[in-house]
Amino acid sequence: RRVLLLGEGNFSFAAALCGAQGTHVVATCYESEEEAAGRGGAARSIRRLRDSGAEVVFSVDCTKLKEHFLPGKREFDRIYFNFPHCGRKAGVVKNRQLLAGFFHSCAELLAQEGEVHVALCNGQGGTPADQPRREWHNSWQIVAVAAGAGFILSDVHPFKAETIDGYKCTGYRSQDKSFCVEGALNHIFTRSTAPLCFTPMSCQTQLGSQKVSFQVPQVLVDKINRGFLEVNSSHPVRTIKEKLSAGLSQAFPLQDISSCLPLLHQGHPSGVCHSNIFCITLGPGEAPGTEKMSQGLADTLMCSHFGQDTDENVQEGCPIPKQFYLRPSLLPHAQAIIKKRAFSPGTLQVLSGPVFRKCRITPHSMPVFHEMLVVLAVSRGTENSCIQMLVENINTTMNSLHQDASGVKPSISLQEATSFGTELNEFAAFEWQLGEIQHFLCVGTDADPSGSCVGVIRTAPDELKSHELVVVSASLNLDLLAMLLCGISDWRMLWTWDRRFLRQFPEGELRLFKSFSLYPPSYVHDVSFWVPDGEEFDEVAFHTLARRVSGEMVISIQLRDNFQQPGTGRRSLCYRVTFQSCDRALGCREAAEMQLHFREEIQQHLGVTLR
Length: 611
Fold this sequence. Notes:
The protein has about 600 residues and is an alpha+beta fold. It is built from 14 helices and 27 strands. The chain has a 7-stranded mixed beta sheet. The chain has a 7-stranded mixed beta sheet with strand order 10-18-19-23-22-21-20, with helices on both faces.
């Protein structure tokens, strides 16, 4: 591998590396050869480097690296810059500018899987790893500076100068003097994935005698047809789904009917708030020419109301219904099976797949997640014991998965629906809209004994219009379970395109997740506006716009002020919007551009007047 070292003072660090097998060292410094050789021990280290076959280059500007190397020799696997400094008494602003130029220059030379190592004195970096930690404005803000050039901080560890044979730091205020490296940190940066390009995705299908097409909502373009539950997937949600199914099959006969479940439903779901669903307008038309196609979606259209199967409405010669919506739940599919009596009493029916819901932005609220729905018809009077058996089985499987992942030890508990009160999370609150709930399935941990809702249980004695049977259904949010078991703090990480995520789960093995993007920078912007007179402000639509404009780069939206103007009665709202990525580089300039775009969009789509 090719290793580039920048800003060498006396070349003692380079000399310590040059003997490593399979490593070609290119050691550089900013000074001329005559100036560098005058430093204590430098001449000896330079001779050692050259004798070992390493390259030594002088007068190298770390912000213009491309100019110093021929085209065929510009790719490096590692780039080291130990204790960079502008020299003399340069302040934090100038040193940030130095780092910014350095990282942009590295982007032109670093191999795709390469690493950039930057050692800084204690406190300079401005990350939580620094002890003590400086105030942000007084640090070099290294993670934010690197993000501007497309790099993320993937590791940070102590810089142990005493373990480097012959190493002696020098260059204090541009002099041949050493400086204190106690508590120094080595920051390891890697390339971030490129920003996603959200090109329109159109889907088409044949309904009756007419061809129809529709456009996938932009906020879901990167989440449709990801295949996380497919047979060849190693994603944690599939592992959890398969383990739960295997555990349940030990207690009940089991039938998996998840294949070919339609993504689209017709009309509007009864009882569900309109602002919580993704509406799709269908219209006759030709197949899109240049737009991206999604054949998997095109083949899975369904027309059904919640609780009412209406497949027969689509017939030859009938007009195509215009209004559809992306399924927010698998429950109507289960209800259709029940009404058709396409099941065997005592056999557990398992359905699974992604569902789509508009929701507010929080680390645990997701516009799409994988639902696992189990349905069981049992003899009347035995439903409570069956529910208990289901919960115990799920608990056993979860404990087994915890041992595999070595994450947070979960404890599944049943909570009466009436005892939850106003403490519902977004998942549980939406489930209430779908129909009456008997129990919430909560996962408690040592840190949070009360637990968070990850599932619901319903009993439907009237579904079968039978005096002998009762239908029990349990809905589980597989994404929330994966987050709890693998120690993932942000739902967006489950949907990352960065391959480093799935590499941590080889062949579906559950492990405790280790983030490859540490201490991502956050950027806070406020937006205030007048709400249209006499209208209720749709906060879910506001959050959904933020998701779409930022490409899921908004981590938090908080209401800061709700003001009503005396005399006119006009209402003004002020929100604080925090931009932060969990998996890729996000620079301050990009965040500022997102904020400006967001302001334009809310004015256009929500009818507000910006202040």
